[in-house]
Structure formats: structure tokens, C-alpha cells
Design goal:
alpha/beta, Cytidine Deaminase, domain 2, 40% helix, 5-stranded mixed β-sheet
Length: 156
Amino acid sequence: MDKEMRQEKALRLDGRYLRMARIWAENSYCKRRQVGALVVKNKMIISDGYNGTPSGFENVCEDDNDLTKPYVLHAEANAITKLARSHNNSEGATLYVTASPCIECAKLIIQAGIKRVVYGEKYRLDDGICLLRRAGIEVVLLDTDRINNKIDEERE
């Protein structure tokens, strides 16, 4: 298999995992934004997360003024902290997340040993992406609509 075909196959796999993260985001009770994340290592999903309140808290993310409560966990943080309670190791893994990580999640990603982040849409701030790149982590913005259209064209 030549290099171009391998890259195309890897891109399709990235698209599939990102679509799965979008589906996982549907588990979130947050009204303002639903975000999903998957941690993948050696083509196996080793953790998942979505934004929401900590375990044992009421599943309401926004206060009476529709502002996000300060203790709501981001999808990335949820997925990474789940790893701490498992026997899995995220060293060298890829994180698929529906929105680009904030600076706080970027710090967790770096400390977790994740080496690659694939995201589907930009968060309003880019400081998290800048920090990840500074740490040598590969960061990829993936346009899944473009990939899906290309796959559909090839099937016709």
C-alpha cells in the first residue's frame, strides 16, 4: 500500500472516531454545548467522556442564568480522569474530541502522555491548541463533512 493510500485510510479512521465522539456527546445533559471525547490507543477505545457534572451530582450543567456551573467537567477531563480509575495507560494515545481543548484540558492531555489530538470544531479561544503544539503534541482539525463527501463519491 502506498503512502497516499495509508494516509487516506488513516484519515477515514480519524473521521470514524470523531463521529463516534459526536455520538457520545449526545449523552451530555448540558444545554449550551454538548462535547464528546474518546481516547484511542492501538485502534482500541480505552476511555470516553462527555461534558457534565461530577458523579453523584444533579445532571444540570447550567444555573438559573443559563451560565455553565463552575464544577462541570469538560469531556476531555472526564475521559482522562476515567483512565485513572482503570488499568489502561494513555501514553502515546490519540484523543478525539468534538471541540478543541481549552487550556485546562490541554494541561491534562499533556500530563496524560497523549501524543495526538483530533478535533472537529474550534473553541472560541485557541490557547489550549497553542499549548498542545508547544508540548510537541500533534493537533489536527478534521473536517468530517469533507471526508464523508469523499467517501460517498467513491462509493458511487
